[in-house]
UniProtKB/TrEMBL annotation:
GO terms for cellular component: cytosol. This is Beta-glucosidase. It holds the Pfam family Glyco_hydro_1. It comes from the Bacteria. It is an enzyme of class 3 (hydrolase). Its EC number is 3.2.1.21.
Length: 447
């Protein structure tokens, strides 16, 4: 039996837009995802995430599910447009939902991990330029203050941003996430303004603070080809180092600054910004799903492709998930070891790890998802190996607690350890969920 350190956190994670629903209830305002999902070709199952898993109305059901799965931690995000109205005022009804959530977690002995931003920017701010505008970072700090005043007495673990790579480069350059813009210069500005927002929020919150970054192992297709090696380093720069270096080292990597120079990236950096962005953190969140396998012979090495993952991923023949992502557990070990050897050491939480598969429930709604169970087991063995090698990993959050609205993929891609019937909203733990509950209860992997 593989035993984890005493006090290790076993959690699951969700995001507000993906699970809550209630999009026009109790004063919630419009977000960029509401608008993005109404764009031509985006209609999925008729509701585009406005109902999602109905978590807003089924909160008690989901809290009971967390207890059933033996979770001792839960990572959730607060919906900015639910708690701040379009005039910039506090929406008390929106905050009340999160107070009920936090109180329900604490009553069950489940540690809340609160994420301030999981991509649902208020549409009113996008109308003013969104993350391409510096003022959005200042508005974020005001929003962080609102949430901190309401929940800071009960929540000790705070995440400022989830995956700023996606919010900036996928949303403003590739256009495959909200707000759906294909403007590389705006994307470059969004990178810095998101990180500035992180730094400003860090000043506001006097609890344990981290940031969750989606990190990848990045490999050249041909490790002996200088062209592929160069391409892999550039992709690593945009995917990993562009966010790790300013947060952990207080500076942007010089080679990436050079690559982004044609987009005017440096023009957005003001005196004092990097000191804010690089202020010491209490922990780092790692979201890991797969790797990038890169060639420099396929074109697309200019800044215009930032955020367009499909332009540099080359299949290798390894098994893939329903998202088309390679299953490479060793990439998680390599990522953790890299953080341990190349960056200042601080506690790490695996804030997302999981896989989508084509789940098929039986008549009772049960899903025998052996592929997902295997995915978790293999990746958790790599987490344990990293801990044995000296990496200070304190917790693991399965993505996701529920099948949910999977962003641009709609409802077709299921990541949950609990199956959701989107007709009745019934929740049924899958085989992987039952297995995960046993692991969490024992704080150990079975032989």
């Amino acid at each position: 039996m593989t035993v984890f350190p005493e006090g290790f956190l076993w959690g699951a994670a969700t995001a507000a837009y993906q699970v809550e629903g209630a999009a026009v209830e109790d004063g919630r305002c419009e977000s960029i995802w509401d608008v993005f999902c109404r764009m031509p070709g985006r209609v999925v199952n008729g509701d585009n995430g406005t109902v999602a898993t109905n978590h807003y109305h089924l909160l008690d059901v989901d809290l009971a599910l967390m207890s059933e799965l033996n979770l001792n931690a839960y990572r959730f995000s607060v919906s900015w447009p639910r708690v701040v109205d379009d005039d910039g005022g506090v929406n008390r009804k929106g905050l009340d939902f999160y107070e009920r959530l936090v109180d329900g977690l604490l009553d069950r002995g489940i540690r809340p991990f609160l994420t301030l931003y999981h991509w649902d920017l208020p549409q009113r701010l996008e109308h003013q330029g969104g993350w391409a505008q510096r003022d959005t970072a200042l508005h974020f700090a005001d929003y962080a203050q609102v949430v901190h005043e309401a929940l800071g007495d009960r929540v000790d673990d705070w995440t400022t941003l989830n995956e700023p790579y996606c919010a900036s480069l996928l949303g403003y350059a590739a256009g495959v996430h909200a707000p759906g813009r294909r403007e590389p210069r705006a994307a470059a500005a969004a990178v810095h303004h998101l990180l500035l927002a992180h730094g400003l929020a860090r000043k506001v919150i006097d609890k344990r603070v981290g940031i969750s970054l989606n990190l990848y192992a990045v490999d050249p297709v041909n490790p002996d080809d200088p062209v592929d090696i160069d391409a892999a380093w550039r992709v690593d720069g945009l995917q990993n180092r562009l966010f790790l270096d300013p947060v952990l080292l207080g500076k942007y990597p010089s080679d990436v600054l050079g690559d982004l120079a044609p987009l005017g990236f440096a023009d957005h950096i003001r005196d004092g910004d990097l000191a804010l962005i690089g202020a010491p953190l209490d922990w780092l969140g790692v979201n890991y799903y797969t790797r990038h396998r890169v060639t420099g012979h396929a074109g697309g090495r200019t800044p215009e492709w930032i955020g367009a993952e499909h332009l540099h991923n080359v299949p290798s023949g390894l098994p893939t998930t329903a998202m088309g992502w390679e299953e490479l557990p060793d990439g998680l070990f390599r990522t953790l070891n890299r953080l341990h050897t190349e960056y200042p050491r601080l506690p790490i939480h695996i804030t997302e790890n999981g896989a989508a598969y084509d789940d098929a429930p039986d008549a009772a709604g049960f899903v025998e998802d052996r592929d997902r169970q295997r995915y978790f087991e293999q990746h958790l063995h790599c987490v344990e190996a990293a801990i044995t090698a000296g990496v200070d990993v304190r917790g693991y959050f399965a993505w996701s607690l529920l099948d949910n609205f999977e962003w641009a993929e709609g409802y077709a891609k299921r990541f949950g350890i609990a199956h959701v019937d989107f007709g009745t909203f019934a929740r049924t733990p899958k085989l992987s969920g039952r297995w995960y509950a046993r692991v969490a209860g024992a704080n150990a992997l079975p032989e």
